[in-house]
């Protein structure tokens, strides 16, 4: 389903909004609904289980006492760190692809092979729940990974 990444990201963001509003039950409901819709749409589980699990962990972290000295950057800054999903190299590759560079140009710029760029692109798609490069770029922009 080509709209699956957008549906998934919408539910993840709704879950984050609910969690920030201290409505953790609603936040969990949004995650449950996201998983249900992905399953119903016959989207491969590898495309959505990671992002859902990471959001569940963020919700669980909000349940812990606020006086925890080891607060994550996402909790202290008030901004979720969606870049945790992507490695720094994947973010670099995604930024260059978003600029319109070809796989060959990205490889040349980052001093990596074209096959490595393609592997990073596949991993980016899986982590962002995208089927195509343009969907990954749009999802990354919606999540704040790309400006």
UniProtKB/TrEMBL annotation:
Q: Which residues cross the membrane?
A: none
- Extract the GO molecular function terms from the UniProt entry: DNA binding
Pfam families for this protein: GerE
The answer to keyword Protease applying to this record is no
Note down the stretches annotated as region Disordered: 58-85
Q: Where is the HTH luxR-type domain?
A: 79-144
Query: Could you tell me which SUPFAM superfamilies the record lists for this protein?
Result: C-terminal effector domain of the bipartite response regulators (SSF46894)
Which domain of life does the UniProt lineage start with?
Answer: Bacteria
UniProt keywords (A-Z) are:
DNA-binding, Transcription, Transcription regulation
List, in alphabetical order, the GO biological process terms annotated in this UniProt record. Answer: regulation of DNA-templated transcription
> What protein am I looking at?
ATP-dependent transcriptional regulator
Organism whose genome encodes this protein? Pseudomonas jessenii
């Amino acid at each position: 389903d080509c709209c699956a990444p957008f549906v998934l990201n919408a539910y993840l963001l709704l879950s984050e909004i609910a969690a920030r509003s201290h409505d953790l039950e609603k936040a969990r409901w949004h995650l449950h609904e996201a998983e249900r819709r992905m399953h119903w749409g016959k989207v491969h589980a590898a495309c959505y289980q990671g992002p859902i699990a990471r959001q569940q962990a963020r919700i669980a972290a909000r349940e812990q006492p606020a006086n925890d000295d080891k607060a994550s950057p996402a909790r202290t800054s008030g901004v979720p760190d969606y870049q945790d999903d992507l490695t720094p190299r994947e973010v670099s590759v995604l930024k260059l692809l978003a600029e319109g560079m070809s796989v060959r140009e990205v490889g040349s710029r980052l001093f990596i092979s074209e096959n490595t760029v393609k592997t990073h692109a596949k991993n980016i798609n899986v982590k962002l729940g995208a089927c195509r490069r343009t969907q990954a770029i749009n999802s990354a922009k919606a999540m704040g990974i790309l400006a």
